[in-house]
Prior knowledge:
The protein is α+β, with helices and mostly antiparallel strands and 760 residues long. A hairpin with a 5-residue loop joins strand 7 and strand 8 (80-83). The strands form eight sheets. The protein has a five-stranded antiparallel beta sheet, with no helix packed on it. It has 17 helices and 31 strands. Helices cover 28% and strands 21% of the residues.
Amino acid sequence: MGTLGILLVLASTGNPSIIFVGAASPDVLEVQVQTGRVVGRAASPYSPESGDKISVYELQPWVLRANKPIGAAVGPKRDRLWRFEKLEGAPWPPAKADNSDFLVRDGAGEIRVVGVGWKSKPTDLARIAPFDFAPAMRHRLYLRLGRPLKAGATYSISLPGNLRADWTFNPRKQRSESVMVSQIGFRPDDPAKSAFVSTWMGTLGPLDYPAAPAFEVLRDKDGATVTRGRATLLKAKSQTDEDAYAKNYAKADVYEVDFSSLITPGKYRVYVAGIGCSFPFEIAPSVWERAFKVGMKGFYHQRANVPLGPPYTPFVRPGKPDDVVASTTTLLESGNGLNLSGDKNNFDALVRGKTSLKVAKAWGGYHDAGDWDTRIQHLDATRLLLELCELFPAWSRRQAWNIPESGNARADLVDEALWNIDHYRRMQGPDGSIRGGIEMPEHPLAGETSWTNSLPWMAYAPDPWSSYLYAATAARAAYVLLSTEPKAAKIYRDSAERAYGWAERDLPRWKDRKLPHNVNDARNLASVELFRTTGLAFYNVAFLQTTVFLDPAKDPTVWQSHDQAEAAFVYARLGKPGMDATVKLYARNALLRFGDNCASATVRSGYRTARENPYLPAGWGLFTVPRPALFRAYFLDPRPEFLRAMVASCQFSLGANPDNLCYTTGLGVRSPQNPLFVDQRMTYQKAPAGITVLGPVDMGIMTSFEKDLLMKFSKPTIDQWPAVETYVDAYLLPLLTEYTVNQNLGPVAYAWGFLAARGK
Length: 760
């Protein structure tokens, strides 16, 4: 498409560089300056020098040389050294920079800069000491000019610190950060195709655009106009009705560019008159399927205890089977589960119950993200994959994305699901009991990888919650396998029934303790799954005894009360003898209400994001993870407004956001480089594909550690930023860059797979 403005490679020194110039409006120029480069290296053999000491703080062994920490001792023998990271590059801007230090000239002379807006935040953080960090920074500057930019004119830009750039304004060919679109594009029959125009200028506040900016959609290869129109104001900065907290998460007017009528396959870009263009995007039948396969690759990259590498991925990681010992503590009691013990530290209960009894065949499952645990909650994602197989059986059998099982007689989608189920099935007790997973006594230590880990592994003791969740998942696997692999289906059905039976026998043991609602919800789900798979009436009776849908007003999910949306979706689709027709109707109606809520939220939101409940806080993936409730409602009742909301609600996470960032690694033009993926960071490889991070968050729910760092390094301070722009792509900021298999990877793959499979 020609030049995209200035995009320079940051010098290897990390010194300040202008990396982008573009227009935010006809009289506002955006200039981006990048400074700093994080340099790190993997742990290497440690040769102690005279006087070296190892100081252990909360299980972490720091190496002191001349009484100064130089890094961490790594491995069970502490025979490797991970040195602290370094930040290369000079700081910027120089002290006391003011408007007079920003100069813009064209052929007619100097153009007065009447205002300078700053918004600066880290692009990564170097860990330079045990508890000290130094930021690589991106500064986005908005220069308000005394007269408008002129197409075809060349401008000389001078910034403090002797930074200079020459730039020719050609808005039909140049990209503007203020024009945002999904970077994967759209299917021709997607009913919602749009881009957004908005700018928050940091210290200068929101940028006001003229009413109804004109736009064109241009063919990328030759710039020909294929459609044109006027943008409409989607959300005014004064509107504070996005949710129950009276918030506006953009803090600026957001205009929507709607080109839903464009159905011709091809590559395009959105041009907004006098400003510039979006990133290119594609209209093609395969866009969702391609995104789905990237999302599914994330599951492969989370596989625990096995080697990763070519030909399946360029990301290389050795595998290491670990010795695992049993704990007498259950996941139900642990802070990493339902915390029935009430401990403040998530690991205390697990460690208290540690024994010397070895647990065999504990390999497999999925790493959780920043931790290497495997937990029963990960089966939530597995059931979503199996749900896709149920809803779209022919489509799911055709999907393949190069995993070790590809090419066998079974669909890759089923193989990936069974990979996780089998981790728990291998540890299943002779009595049918299921352990909640395996865990270390602390988060991973600095410098260590999953194959150099020095901390011991413990397996949770069996509990009814874990056993019910496993029973539900194994029963669903049996249901999916029944038509193609009846022998395999019987294996999973029998395993599910044994787990359910053990949980039923063990449940009375907990009668004197106030169990969280999650146990009843898990029992409810397991009951309906086994009823569907076996047809046995007593499972239906157990479902009806534990369901909330005896009441027509009950929602599928209510915080601290119940979460039975998944079970409702199964029962609402069943047609077996003995079912309660009224409960089925109430369950269906409740799911449709949630669908209505999600669709309504996309209308109120500045960037078309969805939520089932207006009280859901703006964090933990709300902006980046699609809501399965909306897709399930559409399957039950394929209303056009549901489908529009489904497509629209995915666009923010795929690049239609103020950072122009696709929040899934390896997808789109710009994606996270520094997720909280320990094995990647400690080997300094490129981020593996398919990891969807938690993303932006409302600062009101940010943890003190993360908030303190970002308050220190951001301008304006991060608590003043719009929530949609608070993402910082820095390792070790869990609320932003972490992810989990069940909260992120599962719902994302489900949504993209659903959009790919619909109608096929």
